[in-house]
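queue> pop job 88
queue> type: inverse folding (structure -> sequence)
queue> payload:
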């Protein structure tokens, strides 16, 4: 998906949100994912992390064991509502983490993932860190082409009262339908759409249980945008596609953002 192949929602005038860093962001995790195709003779293996640690160790010095965390959505009579995590068998994956614990890179097979966890630093900082890590890791992988690129932003929005619902924070849009806005608790929606021939979006909205920082619980607003085109990309020239995906994600968020959510992002009491 190139810069000219936007979805309808991404044509919104979003100059006030593109590149904007809200004082009270709701993003709890953001990631960029690259599926690459190695050249013949490439010797990268996740079971031998030394070369990747050598390439990235100054920025990501901590080599962590990987336990796969799955997410299960509960909805229905007798089931505790919300998002629950569970541990799956360990995958053959390398995970390198920054000293502050807010950034990590993961690699398994022909997939490279860059994560930002915790307080979101803003798109320009995230993008810069992603490309810095990708360009240093690329020779280790022997990546010749890229077949798929994904951008995902996971928002966690705290409820402000026991009777609060997601529909108070979101408004109807192409990706957040009226049925979601009108829904009582518990809420769980998964919407997968093919917005263009090469771009797909996966939207998830689900209640999350109360916690120390969310007395009344919260809800997850997860936006995942994926490019997978008929022609492979040059691994040295991913920025146009990454920027294009980011514009789609931001426009989906903006089109669904209610006045209450905007006030929360700007630091006002809600």
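queue> result:
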């Amino acid at each position: 998906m190139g810069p000219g192949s936007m979805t309808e929602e991404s044509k919104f005038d979003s100059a006030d949100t593109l590149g904007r860093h809200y004082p009270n962001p709701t993003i709890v995790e953001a990631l960029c994912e690259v599926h690459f195709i190695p050249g013949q003779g490439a010797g990268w293996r996740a079971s031998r992390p030394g070369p990747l640690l050598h390439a990235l160790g100054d920025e990501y010095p901590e080599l962590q064991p990987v336990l796969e965390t799955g997410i299960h959505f509960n909805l229905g009579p007798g089931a505790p509502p919300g998002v629950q995590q569970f541990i799956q068998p360990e995958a053959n994956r390398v995970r390198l983490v920054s000293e502050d614990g807010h950034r990590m890179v993961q690699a398994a097979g022909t997939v490279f993932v860059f994560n930002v966890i915790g307080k979101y630093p803003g798109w320009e900082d995230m993008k810069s860190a992603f490309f810095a890590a990708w360009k240093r890791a690329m020779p280790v992988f022997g990546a010749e082409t890229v077949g798929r690129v994904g951008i995902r932003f996971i928002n966690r929005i705290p409820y402000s009262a026991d009777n609060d619902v997601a529909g108070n924070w979101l408004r109807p849009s192409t990706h957040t339908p009226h049925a979601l806005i009108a829904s009582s608790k518990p809420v769980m929606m998964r919407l997968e759409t093919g917005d263009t021939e090469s771009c797909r979006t996966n939207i998830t909205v689900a209640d999350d249980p109360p916690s120390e920082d969310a007395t009344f619980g919260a809800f997850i607003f997860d936006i995942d945008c994926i490019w997978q085109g008929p022609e492979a990309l040059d691994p040295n020239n991913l920025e146009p596609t990454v920027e294009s995906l980011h514009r789609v994600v931001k426009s989906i968020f903006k089109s669904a953002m209610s006045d209450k959510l905007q006030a929360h992002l700007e630091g006002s009491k809600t």
